Amino acid sequence: MYCLSRKTVEEIAELLKVNDVKALPYHAGLDATTRMNNQDAFLNEEADVIVATIAFGMGIDKPDVRFVIHYDVPKSLEGYYQETGRAGRDGLEGNCLMFYSYEDIQKLEKFNKDKSVTERDNARHLLNEMVAYANLGVCRRRQLLSYFGEYFEKDCGFCDNCVKSTEKLKAQEEVIIALKAVLLTNERFDGEHIADLLTATENQYVKSYDHDKLEVYGQGLEHNDSREFWVSLLRQLVILNYLEKDVENYGVLKIGEKGKNFIKDPYPVTIYKDHNYEEDEEKAEEDDAAAVGTGSAHAYDEALLGMLKALRKKVAKEKNLPPYVIFQDPSLEEMATTYPTTQQEMAQINGVGMGKVQKFGRQFLDMINRYVEENDIETAKDVVIKSMVNKSKIKIYIIQQVDRKVDLEEIAETKGLPMEDLIEEIEHICYSGTKLNLDYYINQIMDRERQDDIYDYFMNAETDNIAVALEEFAHDDVSEEELRLMRIKFLSELAN
Predict the structure, then answer these.
(1) What is the pLDDT of residues 243-264, one digit of tens each?
(2) If residue 433 lies in a helix (H) or strand (E), which one and from where to where?
(3) Which residues pair with 169 in a beta bridge?
(4) Quick one: pLDDT band at residue 24, thresholds 50, 70, 90?
(5) How confident is the model at residue 496 (pLDDT cuts 50, 70, 90)?
(6) Last residue of some domain: 343, 368, 383?
(7) Where residue 196 sits, what CATH number does that domain have?
(8) Mean pLDDT confidence for 365-374
């Protein structure tokens, strides 16, 4: 399993170990002897899982790796390809799973902000390729081979996009327009530029090259006004071999032989809609609410989850609170997986804790107990994921220091934590039902009017997602740190 940071490596390895998985960490922060011992243990099958940064695996001679999991999005497709290539070297099946969230991309962009302009641009290009790989609905194998300059004629048939195909479209005029745009710009520009040209998107380079005078300028709007559609189409035309990448100039598109023949004799081309993970998630929630518990592909019981969400909505309405204040979705999903029937069991659910159980848990426990009894369910207490005991020490320290009104910067410095990580620890404490009073610190960095605006926002918001909140306050110069601190204050006062 690959993670981006040493901290995450240690946490995931520890989480697996306390749940009886033979896992070991591997990263450059460990001393050479420990790294060597951990690698040898993995090679000799004394450990089943290695949780590592990219420091692990260069040239290891282990042919029977069956799974490669990316807990964080890799920084580049080159890295992803190399790391997934460590599975199935014996010719037998190897499975690769990558967890993707655009928040990971934003985090990686932050890491690049202190680099030189050239390094930053290169890193951004590589991240854009990762975003495209995650979002495109085309066969994953075809995408990867195309990225490295190889054309693959058929879909692989076993990646997620092949097994559960995204929506397909037939495009002919759109392909003609896209190929013409590449020709009329003398095959000197990348897909982003061509998409701007076709959608008449404000772009200084389009005008500086007089491309706004070309016949194809804005012509794409007649077929699809989404710039993202054209970027995706151009990427797919590369994968399908109508377009080729200029190997000497990064991202520049050229017409391939197949593309030239197409312009002479066009025909409908099958393309795929991109994934929209936000829409997929919303649809999944709607399906959950109407679920009847048949043939679920999820680990959780869809029927129970729908009932729990309906109850959460009812309780939230009675208490005049947003539903997420009662219990967040991941907590309800875990309840619908492990069927907690006592206060102690429910308190072990991630994001709950005894404080929340005592405040909101009774009706939920009653519902789960009735459901378990009516459906003759044998509760799987042994599958409850155990929490990491050693992490409680730092949480206790933070709670004690906050109670003493110690400045958060001082707490972070004492524990050697970046401020962002300290706030994340405080969020975990808060989500587990412990009430924290950060007023002494918040009052130092924000005036009362600003606090009230953010507090009112969370009271009326449908979600406590920080990315959504940042958009809402985009014109008010409100920082992510301020929003996260006010969310902690809000949840501490109303949820805990």
Answers:
(1) 998 877 878 999 999 999 999 9
(2) none
(3) 271
(4) very high
(5) low
(6) 383
(7) 1.10.10.10
(8) 91
Q: Sign of dihedral through CA atoms 100, 105, 111, 112?
A: positive
Q: What is the mean pLDDT of residues 126-130?
A: 89
- Give the DSSP letter string of 351-399: TTHHHHHHHHHHHHHHHHHHHHHHTT----GGGSPPP-GGGHHHHHHHH
Quick one: angle between helices 353-374 and 302-319, nearest 10? 130
Domain assignment present for 227: yes
Share of the chain above pLDDT 70, in %: 91
Q: Are 329 and 300 in contact (CB under 8 A)?
A: no
Give burial (CB, 10 Å; 0-12/13-18/19+) of 444. Answer: exposed
Whether 129 and 12 share a structural domain: yes
| 165 CB-near residues (< 8 Å, 6+ apart) | 137, 272
DSSP 348: T
pLDDT in tens, 389-447: 445 578 888 888 988 899 999 999 888 888 888 998 898 888 777 788 999 999 999 99
Is residue 129 located within the same domain as residue 215?
no
Domain membership of residue 147 (yes or no) is no
Closest CA to 231 of 206, 198, 260: 198
Does 294 have pLDDT greater than 50?
A: no
Residue 292 pLDDT class (50, 70, 90 cuts): very low
Tell me the C-alpha distance between 419 and 430, whole Å.
16
Compute the distance between CA of residue 484 and CA of residue 465 in angstroms, rounded to an integer: 10
476 CB contacts (<8 Å, ≥6 apart)? Answer: 453
For residue 277, name the pLDDT band (cuts at 50, 70, 90): confident
* Cα separation, 38 vs 43, whole angstroms: 9
Place of tokens 């829409």: 279
Q: Which residues form the domain of 366?
A: 295-383
What radius of gyration, in Å, describes the C-alpha atoms of the chain? 26
Residue 104 and residue 136 in one domain: yes
Which CATH number is 317's domain given? 1.10.150.80
Same domain, yes or no: 265 and 303: no
Cβ atoms of 81 and 150 within 8 Å: the answer is no
Residue 95's Cβ-side half-sphere holds a number of Cα atoms within 13 Å equal to 4
Query: Do 444 and 352 reside in the same domain of the chain?
Result: no
Q: Is the pLDDT of residue 381 over 70?
A: no
Distances (CA, A) of 125 to 137, 166, 334, 364: 20, 25, 37, 47
Does the structure show a pLDDT above 60 at 68? yes
How many other CB atoms are there within 10 angstroms of residue 391's CB atom?
Answer: 14
Are 127 and 29 in the same domain? yes
State how beta strands 67-70 and 49-52 pair.
Answer: unpaired
What is the pLDDT, as a whole number, of residue 174? 95
Q: What is the pTM of this model?
A: 0.59
